Amino acid sequence: MTYRAPLDDFRLLLNHIVGFDSVSKTARFEDATTETVEAILSEAAKMCEEVLTPLNRNGDLDPAVLENGKVRSSNGFADGYKAIADGGWVAVSADPEFGGMGLPLTVTTAVNDMMVSSNMALHLNPLMTQGQIEALEHHACDELKALYLPKLVTGEWAGTMNLTEPQAGSDVGALSSKAEPNGDGTYAITGQKIFISWGDNDFTENVCHLVLARLPDGVAGTKGISLFLVPRNIPDADGKPGEANSLKVVSVEHKMGIHGSPTCVMSFEGARGWLVGSEHDGMRAMFTMMNNARLGVAVQGVGIAERAYQQALAYANERKQGRTAEGSIIGHADVRRMLASMKADTFAARAIALSVAVALDMANATGDAEWQARAAFLTPIAKAFGTDTGIEVANTGLQVHGGMGFIEETGAAQYVRDVRVTAIYEGTNGIQAMDLVGRKLMDGGEAAYKLLDEIEAFAEGARAIMPDLAEPVWQASENLRETTEALVAREVSDRFAVAVPFLRGFARVLGGYFHLAAAMAKPDGAEAKLAAFYIKRLLPEHLGLLAHAREGADDLMGISPDDLAV
Amino acid sequence: MTYRAPLDDFRLLLNHIVGFDSVSKTARFEDATTETVEAILSEAAKMCEEVLTPLNRNGDLDPAVLENGKVRSSNGFADGYKAIADGGWVAVSADPEFGGMGLPLTVTTAVNDMMVSSNMALHLNPLMTQGQIEALEHHACDELKALYLPKLVTGEWAGTMNLTEPQAGSDVGALSSKAEPNGDGTYAITGQKIFISWGDNDFTENVCHLVLARLPDGVAGTKGISLFLVPRNIPDADGKPGEANSLKVVSVEHKMGIHGSPTCVMSFEGARGWLVGSEHDGMRAMFTMMNNARLGVAVQGVGIAERAYQQALAYANERKQGRTAEGSIIGHADVRRMLASMKADTFAARAIALSVAVALDMANATGDAEWQARAAFLTPIAKAFGTDTGIEVANTGLQVHGGMGFIEETGAAQYVRDVRVTAIYEGTNGIQAMDLVGRKLMDGGEAAYKLLDEIEAFAEGARAIMPDLAEPVWQASENLRETTEALVAREVSDRFAVAVPFLRGFARVLGGYFHLAAAMAKPDGAEAKLAAFYIKRLLPEHLGLLAHAREGADDLMGISPDDLAV
Fold first, then answer.
1. Measured on CA atoms in the order B225, B231, B236, B242, is the torsion positive or negative?
2. What class is the B157-280 domain?
3. For testing the chain B interface, which of A195, A418, A475, A537 should be mutated: the one with the most B CBs within 10 Å?
4. What pLDDT tens digit does each residue of chain A (566 aa) get?
5. CB-CB neighbors (< 8 A) of A402 in chain B
6. Do A403 and B433 touch (CB under 8 A)?
7. DSSP assignment letter at A14
8. What are the Acyl-CoA dehydrogenase/oxidase N-terminal domain coordinates in residue numbering (chains A, B) (predicted)?
9. How far is A154 from chain B (nearest CA, A)?
């Protein structure tokens, strides 16, 4: 169960596919040259391969547990976390003013990808901190920034996100946690939160909770929600963690996977908190965290896909069964098909995730609204397709192992169990799809059509050189354009019925585009063969998905709950 | 976590969709009237709902373990097994000469479906016994039959299948277990077997192992393999379990799911065995077991899909989140889509499985080779599509639960973990697909074309009444016919590269046919609405699958192991 960071894939993707050169050319990111990025990714790769990977199984076998009200983390996780923090890998993109490296989010995304592959459960801790850093950078007052950001950036302190309550999951606006002004500028936070990833740990000095709660004059729904920073230990005059705050971990959930990541039920009992942003404006800050986290979760799917692929490939190269030219099961056509599918889909999902990161970096560097719209449009696609791909690839990886895959010692099953949650948290994949066909088509399809224009222009340019690959991509894009037009013409509520197949159809076409670009960049390489595999065998899935997406809502909603009864 | 047996679905399927009336009309099965079958299924349903269902979670939480060389089963499983045995549910179709009910396999299939839904891990025990009974009925000598069958049929003794060895999984012919004649008509069996479901238990008097091994003069490969019956306790002169045989359970695997079913490593150390069938003819008997077992495993997929669906439906009806007309999340279009997909696919998978059973019953009752060919053709489709559907539906069921789905207490995750193995054992789904495009197309496509003729004739008859549904089914069938022709025209080895998408495409079209039949039978019912959902939204998946299936093998095999390296 080793892991080798896919540095060649990152090199190809950044330099030839997702347009990272534009990022390097901006004034903001001029230091992020190809050489610098290469050096940084190599360094991160080393830490992931050598330190985090060997700890991954510990998280599964020795789950984080609650002991005397404190979380005890899995054996070795404290050392793993120290390596992440010491290397500066918690917050690669954080503002240098507060100790960050100020590197593009694209670099963070690639580093996260490798950390997920090597240890998803542990990496979820710094991933939460990354979201908190971004929320504080954008919305906190200067005092809070000065006090908290340096500690979070170094990883001395960890951050969490406290959104969900038992009756308020996807419907965040239904939350009932309360905030009362203490009269000294602080607030007393009271309520119960569930599904809090890394709600506590035993390796950082402090744990800082970002908590959504409602002030006494907050209206019902999302518009009455405010965001508070609630530290486990209240910083003293020297900024050191002092007095314990009135909050606790009530329990740690028994989950299907990521056992190394304690999922906590948190109780806030008049805990002292500090307002982040304006009163009643918590949702805006939450969306900052969520957008960051959605890309982070997309990459969890990609990272697990990569790891599951590598393990399945190693097994297929070693396992002898039946007569093949290669001497191992990799010689069987169906095993080859499974491995090629895994690799091709992982590539597509990674390309989409990195495209979001590039668009965000360009938006940050240039302030251009078009890049912002591109990032906003691609984010739900990256999240849903990335995580669905993680789930599918992990399952295929298990299948490659045959009977051994079902035996826990092999490790393939852990990936299946770990990655399953990624389709759920930070907005279920159904919610992502509703976001795509709802909010992200409110521009009348402008962002979508710009992407399709880009795809078709590229396919037209490639047509003379690789007609077999360029033509199907162009055709698929046209089909997608017509489907998008059909959706835009409908009421938003009618689009929801087909949101999921539309999102997946869009992702399939994007995958075709990125594979075509890879083939054009490396026409004589393995990339071109894999692109042909994807475009001829996997891309056709869009036909059924888009046919589904062109159906209306009435037929579906006409199937009543009674019709569904057994 | 209750379960309600889908008796209405069975009624519709048997009476209107899969042609069970033909079975009832045969002399062999003339007792299996509609009324009798209804009564039997109702009785089985009661046992499943009331006795087996409440024990299901015990199997997961209190796994079967090895204690002092003996398997200790999960809490309550002994009682559950007693209810199965006492009700006569072990072997509904066994020969009345040996105490069986002699009912059609179609009835067994429906009963198995319900037992799987209520407790897959426990039901795997009698499922193995069913396979053993069928193998002995067909291949054992009269003395073995007289001694063993009455005990197996009542469930007093249990049966197992010992095929796999560490180096001989899918490639059974590579096995190294040995059989030496003892000179008294018995044989000494020596070797290690792995992945033996219910290799031991603590609730039957005896456990009878069917073991594949090679005689001293057996040639290498599958043609040198013989089958032996090796009881844990050697029956004494009165047919009572006596002296312990030289065999033992070495260990019980730690698996992703079905924790209640002990998966054993077995060691045979000169154990006394009796030959079943002729020397070196073990593979033929094994195929009898395997064919039975493949249908049984298909139904494991269907049964778990049903259970996961019922739980997700109950959750969706109760869970409040966001504003909907229904007051619960079932009012959200995407939740409705998920539930409709689950129900529609479960129906399709169940119809395919029952069609196999009907074809086997007709073949048994009439000796007609055409029915035999139909059963043989449909079996790999039923197995692969049934289990893939089980996996997909269980995953969708988990998704309907949102964050709660990932928490083990909810139960949704258990279905995902339990059902995962069904795509692997009794021949991986890749092997099923290779069987379909290889052995099952060796007739030049005759069995396939007969099925397609039947589908198209039905669709033509339905066209005037339900053109919106009949036409897409007819078109899909034509597309499938062309794809089948393309495959038949190729070398068998070239078909393997696209075997999986071809099998799934075939299943999708069969599902369209059965849904169309349901709509025609119940034009004003929920069935017609669900059929429209399937045909318009899920059936189009065949477009991408069949496009994939029409691709050749060269492009795939041209992706070398080096091309796949990271």
1. positive
2. mainly beta
3. A537
4. 799 999 999 999 999 999 999 999 999 999 999 999 999 999 999 999 999 999 999 999 999 999 999 999 999 999 999 999 999 999 999 999 999 999 999 999 999 999 999 999 999 999 999 999 999 999 999 999 999 999 999 999 999 999 999 999 989 999 999 999 999 999 999 999 999 999 999 999 999 999 999 999 999 999 999 999 999 999 999 999 999 999 999 999 999 999 999 999 999 999 999 999 999 999 998 888 888 899 999 999 999 999 999 999 999 999 999 999 999 999 999 999 999 999 999 999 999 999 999 999 999 999 999 999 999 999 999 999 999 999 999 999 999 999 999 999 999 999 999 999 999 999 999 999 999 999 999 999 999 999 999 999 999 999 999 999 999 999 999 999 999 999 999 999 999 999 999 999 999 999 999 999 999 999 999 999 999 999 999 999 999 999 999 999 999 999 999 999 99
5. 169-170, 424, 428
6. no
7. I
8. 34-156
9. 31
Strand partners, B158: B207
Q: What are the tens digits of pLDDT across the range B122-181?
A: 999 999 999 999 999 999 999 999 999 999 999 999 999 999 999 999 899 999 999 999
Residue ranges of B 198-237 with Cβ closer than 8 A to chain A: none
Q: Which of residues 265-324 of B touch A (CB under 8 A)?
A: 309-310, 313, 317, 320-322
Q: How many CB atoms lie within 10 A of CB B202?
A: 14
Element (H, E) at B180: strand B178-181
* Cα–Cα distance, A563 to B187 (Å, whole number): 59
Q: B336 and A557 in contact by Cβ < 8 A?
A: yes
Q: Is B490 on the interface with A (CB under 8 A)?
A: no
CB contact under 8 A, B565 and A391: no
Q: What is the CATH number of domain A158-280?
A: 2.40.110.20
**Of residues A171, A530, A556, nearest to B322 (C-beta):** A171
The candidate with the shortest Cα–Cα distance to B12, out of B351, B302, B382, B345, is B351
Residue contact B169–A257, C-beta within 8 A: no
Q: In three state form, how does the secondary structure of B201-229 look?
A: CCCCCEEEEEEEEECCCCCCCHHHEEEEE
Domain assignments of chain A as residue spans, ordered by start: 158-280, 430-560
**Interface pTM, i.e. ipTM:** 0.98
DSSP output for A177-242: -EEEE-SSS-EEEEEEEEEEETS--SSSSEEEEEEEEE-TTPPSSGGGEEEEEEESEEE-TTS-EE
Contact between residue A258 and residue A174 where contact means Cβ atoms under 8 Å apart:
no
Q: Which helix (H) or strand (E) holds A364?
A: helix A333-366
Determine how many CB atoms are found less than 10 A away from the CB of residue B460: 12
To which H or E segment does residue A450 belong? helix A446-463
Indicate the angle between helix axes A282-318 and A412-419, nearest 10 degrees. 160
The helix (H) or strand (E) run that includes residue B181 is strand B178-181
For residue B118, give the nearest of B57, B64, B204 by alpha carbon.
Answer: B57
Compute the 3-state secondary structure of chain B and give helix, strand, coil in percent, each to the nearest 5. Answer: 60, 15, 25
**Strand ranges, E, within B317-357:** none
The token duo for A144 is 């809070």
B18 touches chain A (CB under 8 A): no
**Contact (CB, 8 A) for B271 and B208:** no
